[in-house]
Each structure stands twice: as C-alpha cells, then as structure tokens.
Amino acid sequence: MKISFRFPATPASEATRAYRRRVLLLAMIGIAVLPLAWRGPSCGQDFDFHLQNWLEVARSWREGVVYPHWAASANYLAGEPRFVFYPPLSRFLGAALGWVLPWNWTPLAFTLVCLLGAAWSFRAMAREWAGEDNAAIGACLYVVNPYMMFLAYERGALAELLAAVWIPLVVLYGLRAERSLVPLALTVAAIWLTNAPAAVMGCYMLALLVLVAALQHRSWKQMGRLAARAGGGVALGLALAGFWLVPAIYEQRWVQINLALGPLMRVEDSFVFRFVPTRPGLSADDLFAIHYHNQVLLLASWIAVALIAGTVLAASFSWRRRSPLWLPLVIMGAVVCCLQFAWSDFVWRLTPKLGFLQFPWRWMLVLGTILAALVALALRPEPPTRRGIAVRAILMLLLAGGMAGLSSALFWQACDEEDNVAAQIQTMRSTGFAGTDEYTPQGADTSEMGSEPVADANSFMTLVGKPERIIVQNPNHQQIPARVKIDRWQTEHMTADVTSPTAGYAVLRLMDYPSWRVTRNGTEVNHAIRRSDGEMAIPVEAGTNHIDVTWRTTGDQSAGIVLSLGGLAFTLAWNWVERRRKGNPVP
How far apart (Å, rounded) are the C-alpha atoms in residues 86 and 159? Predict the structure, then answer.
C-alpha cells in the first residue's frame, strides 16, 4: 500500500484559514512548553523570587489584603517592603493561577498565559502592515525565538516574559494612524505595572520609533500629531500606573535601592562575550558567582548573535516591501545591536535610568519583536491553497519542536531539593527566606539576622531554627523575662500583649519601615529606635502593654492613588469623546 503525502492544491476558505492560523499558534505554544509539562518547572535564576511573590500575595489575599505591600517571609520572617517597589501584575497573575491550580502546575500555566498573550499581541500588531497570514507566521516566530525560551527556561524571569505581551502593542499603538491614545496609554501603564526594565526599554523604543516615523512624514502637521499622541499616551499611561509608580519612586529614599547595581549586576559586566575575569584571593563563593555569571553571559551572547544575524537577513529581504514600518524597525534594531557592545558604555551612563536594566542583552526582548516583524514583512502573501498552508505549518511546527528540544537541553534547570515548589512552600511557612538587598531599609544590615540560632544579644534569638516573634530587652540589649501573648500576626497587621516586669523594648521580628503605624495601649508611639539589624523596637513600660502594628497608607501612596484615579477619569472621558466624534453610540 502506497501512502501519499501530497496535499490537494484547492483553495481554502478564509474562515478555514483563520481557524488553522489559530490552531497553528496554539500548537506552537504547546510544543514550546512541552518540556515544562514533561520535566517539571525550570528552576532558573529568578524562579524562586517569582514563586515566593505568588505565595506571598496568595497568603495576603487569604488574610483579606487585596493589594499587599509587604513580603512577610523575606529576611527570615522579618519581612521587607518588596511589593512597594516590584510591579504588581506578574505577582497577581501568578497568585490568581495558584489560587485555582495546584502550585506545581502554576509555573507552567503562567508560561502558557504569557506565550498566548504574546502571540495575540504580536499578531494584532503585525497584521496592520503584513496581513493576516504573515502576521500569524511572525507571531509563531516571536513566541519561540531564542530569547523567549531563554526567559522561560534558563532565567525563570517570568515578569519579563509577561512583559513580552506588551512590547508589540507599544509598536502598534505608537505608530497607528488613528484613535490610539487610550490604547497606547493602557499599554504603557500595563508594561510599567509588569516589569520596570521592560518598561524603560518600551518607552525608549516608543520614542525612537515615533521619531523616525514622524520624520518620514512630509507634513509638519502629521509629524506633530504623531509626536503629540505618543507623548500624551505615555503621560496618561504613567498617570494610570501612578498608584504603584509614585510610591516606588518616592520610597526609594527609604531603602538601599542602589544595591540592585552591585558586582556582576552592572551593565559593564555583561556586554556580549565580555566575561568577568577571576583573580587570586577571591573566595570560593565569589569564584562560583563569577563562573555562573560568565556561563549565563555566554548563552545570552550567542542568543544575541543569532537574533542580530536573523534581523540583518530579515531587514535585507523585507526592504523591497516599502512598508512604512520598515525604517523605524531597522533603525531601532541597529540601536539595540549597538547597545550590546562595550563601546556603547557612555550611552548607558548618560541615558537616564538605562543602567537599571543591569544586562544589555535584555534588549533582546525588543530585538525579538523586530526580527519577527521584519520576517512577517519579508514573506510573500500565503498561497490560498491547503498545500501552501500545510507547508508553512509544518515548517513552523518543526521550528517549535527544535526550539523546545534546544531549550530542554541547554536552558532547563533542575530544581535542587530546597528549590522545588513543595520545599519553598514549607520554607515560607517555617523559617522564611533571605531578603532582597535593594529592598533593605536604610541603615539596616540584614547580615546580622538569620534562620539559625545566634549568640549576639542584639540579633534575634531563635527556637529550634524558627525565630521568636517578639522578645523584650533592656537598653543594654539583655533579654527581660517578659510574658508575650500574640493575638494576631498577619502580613500587614500584628497585635500582641507584652507584660514586662520593667521598662524596656519589645523587639519584633519585623523590619522597621516608615509605613508601619504603631500604637501602645491605644496611643501612637515613636518606634524609630534604630537597631543595626533593622528590626522594630518598641518602648514598653512595666506592666501590660497592648501593641498594635498596622500598615498605613502614607502621603506618597495617597498621591499615587489620586493620580491614577485622575488618569482613569481622563481616559474614560477621552474615550467617550472619541466615540461621539466617530458617531458610535456610547453605552
């Protein structure tokens, strides 16, 4: 019996072709995450951080805190104001998925949602200039490009992976001719609320794309309109994100935010193939950190080379299409390529906030969008036959299978015994985790605390490896035999009765921070007694002291909320005016 693989060259209806495009995208994404479903979560560099965020938010929700600010398990249960500074969307999405799914499935579900969103947004962008069929092929390339797989498997940078949903929409609404102010503002707000480095890249990308597109216009009126819409969209988007952005900017003075740019986390340490050298006298931990950094940099450098080469080829094949999108994309791609090399160091130093990207190769998130868009522009229109559709589909599926195999072999990270999901849940409930350096309050030295018993009386005492919540000390840091009854110990609200034979200080297993409101026996007290380890010390009197510690909304947080509400009101009003102007009924 002879089996034929020939496909009939008969036309397919548009409805059938649209259905097949959707099926192809779903199949590509399913193949891309297959190693995660088969081998389990990849415990990449940032996986622990994101899983802890999801667990923290889910716990806060169970306690009735809708928008948590405090990560209680950090610094070995002393906590940190992580969520004041880290954007909310990725942690909210992960917590919501973990709320309805087993936690072991949540990383896979999160990755699926990110890739589905990225495919949808890229297709929405590309079909404006390349047509439906080529836009679908470009979306397939976008979701399986090497940097996306690097984020999902090697780095575990799941917030940055979620930010990949918004990058194509920045291009779409930044360059679309009409009615894009509100969508652009919503996109700008979304990317800032997802990942700050991606937001910095997105805003600079938008500025350059709009500048090049404006210069392409012969009319000063068109140039001004394009620039004004982009500027207005960014301003409105920042206002919408103000409830998070204003506190995140203002309260940096309360923490050691510059520690985010420590050794091996600076731009100059991560230009392509520019490895950090070792030298005699380094500790074993430092040597391991340098070796690991260089290993990751090697992978990122080869990914950069592959994307740069692909972008050059796609640009050369697509320039004849005469698309108005071609020149802005090519110039943006050239800038991204230049930023990967050490001689661009002066640009990184002079451009505001660009250094906080930490790694130049983060720009590969933008370059992946450019590459896929240029490929979509370069492709010829798909032949309206089942045979043509099948050939393209098979090539895309083979590409997805190859990328999934390479990702499983090169990027997938096995979880250590203490890093798997079940172990991290147990650790969060028992001893807690180490803190994040840049979120440490000013003047605090978290190296003085730990989850193991310590001898220093100025540090927290522990019982069986688990810290006590409250101890009472005299001014000489000697422990007082007081009786402590904890009534409530939640993430953002703690109450306790401390009965002490003498006056002293109740030292809480809680990092001191200006947002805490402390009352003793109903009267607000000044708890700004500085300890070298950063924990809160509350003066107590002889007798019974009822202590209440509650997270309060500070002035900067209120200002951010007001700014967001004002931005929302303007957005709704502008959208209403645009709908009336176009003659559409307003519901």
Answer: 10
Please, are residues 173 and 184 in contact by the beta-carbon 8 Å criterion? yes
Helix axis angle, 284-318 to 364-378, nearest 10°: 20
Alpha-carbon gap, residue 261 to 258, rounded angstroms: 6
State the DSSP H helix or E strand holding residue 3, giving kind and residue range, or none if neither: none
Secondary structure, 3-state, 268-281: HHCCCCCCCCCCCC
C-alpha 426/C-alpha 420 separation (Å) is 10
* Beta-carbon contacts of residue 463 (< 8 Å; ≥ 6 apart): none
CA 405 – CA 212 distance, rounded (Å): 39
Please report which helix (H) or strand (E) contains residue 475, including its range. Answer: none
Dist. CA 520–CA 497, nearest whole Å: 9
Phi then psi dihedrals of residue 537, to 5 deg: -120, 120
Residue 322, sorted as left (phi over 0), alpha (psi -120 to 50) or beta, turns out to be: left
Question: Distance between CA atoms of 195 and 162, rounded to whole angstroms?
Answer: 8
Q: What is the dihedral of CA 192, 197, 199, 205, to 10 degrees?
A: 180
Q: How far is CA 201 from the centre of its chain?
A: 13
Q: What is the DSSP letter of 415?
A: P
Residues in Cβ contact with 18 at an 8 Å cutoff, skipping those fewer than 6 apart: 132
Kind and range of the H or E run holding 118: helix 106-130
Residue 388 CB: number of other CB atoms within 10 A?
Answer: 18
Please give the model's pTM, rounded to 2 decimal places: 0.91
The DSSP secondary-structure symbol of 479 reads B
For residue 579, the Cα-to-chain-centroid distance in whole angstroms is 34
State the alpha helices, DSSP H only, in 40-85: 47-62, 74-77, 82-85
In three-state secondary structure terms, 283 is: coil
8 A C-beta contact, residue 335 and residue 209: no
Q: How many CB atoms lie within 10 A of CB 83?
A: 23
Q: Looking at per-residue confidence, does 1 or 13 come out higher?
A: 13
Structure token pair of residue 502: 């003498």
What does the alpha-carbon distance between residue 86 and residue 39 come to, in Å, rounded to a whole number?
29
Average pLDDT, the chain: 88
Q: Which tokens in the block code for residue 138? A: 């470009």
Phi, psi of 333 (to 5 degrees): -65, -40
Among residues 319, 314, 276, the alpha carbon closest in space to that of 295 is found at 276
- Tokens standing for 111? 């990755």
pLDDT digits (tens, 9 = 90+) for 227-262: 888 899 999 999 999 999 999 999 999 999 988 888
- The per-residue pLDDT for range 313-363, each reduced to its tens digit, is 999 999 887 788 999 999 999 999 999 999 999 999 999 989 889 999 999
User: In sequence order, which residues have a C-beta less than 8 Å from that of residue 79 and are 6 or more positions away?
Assistant: 70, 71, 72, 73, 491, 510, 511
Interatomic CA distance for residues 112 and 340, integer angstroms: 29
Q: Measured in whole angstroms, how far is the alpha carbon of residue 103 from the centre of its chain?
A: 19
Reported as a single tens digit per residue, the pLDDT across 162-189 is 999 999 999 999 988 677 889 999 999 9
Q: Which two tokens stand for residue 371?
A: 């590459």
For residue 205, what are its two tokens?
Answer: 């990308």
